[in-house]
Amino acid sequence: MPNTIALGGKTWTLPALPWRIVREVQPEIGKFFALAGDGGTNTLRLTTAELDALAGVVFRAAGHVDRTLTREAFDDLAFSPLDVVRAIPAVARACGLVKESAAAPDPLDARPPAPDE
Fold it and tell me: Do 79 and 13 contact (CB within 8 A), yes or no?
């Protein structure tokens, strides 16, 4: 599974990210997965600060691939909070935080409760 993120009409394929980036973004990725849980819900409630922090994670990864990308240019792209949220698993794989072969569950895909739940 390629580590590809797509936002605002742009696509970046992420290589394994260097330690300096992993060290910087790992805390926010960990917070995100803790909030999302195992599969999440259709609505992931994030504050503006949390969304901005996640966008910062995606920017750091995209900026590693496209060294001309500025935060201002990134913030001017047209994308939704959902786009940012869906980019996080690819960044996590590029950081080596999840197994490359493991398909991370989409945190916004709801699953119906099992009959026992």
Answer: no
**DSSP label at residue 112:** P
Taking the whole predicted model, whether its pTM rises above 0.70 is answered as yes
Whole-angstrom distance, CA of residue 71 vs CA of residue 75: 6
Number of residues in the chain:
117
Angle at 77 between CA 46 and CA 33, to 5 degrees: 30
Instruction: List the pLDDT tens digit at each of the 117 positions of the chain.
Output: 578 999 999 999 999 999 999 999 999 999 988 887 655 445 568 889 999 999 999 999 999 999 999 999 999 999 999 999 999 999 999 999 987 654 545 554 433 344 444
Which residue is listed with tokens 């690819």? 90
Domain boundaries, the chain: 4-94
The amino acid at 11: T
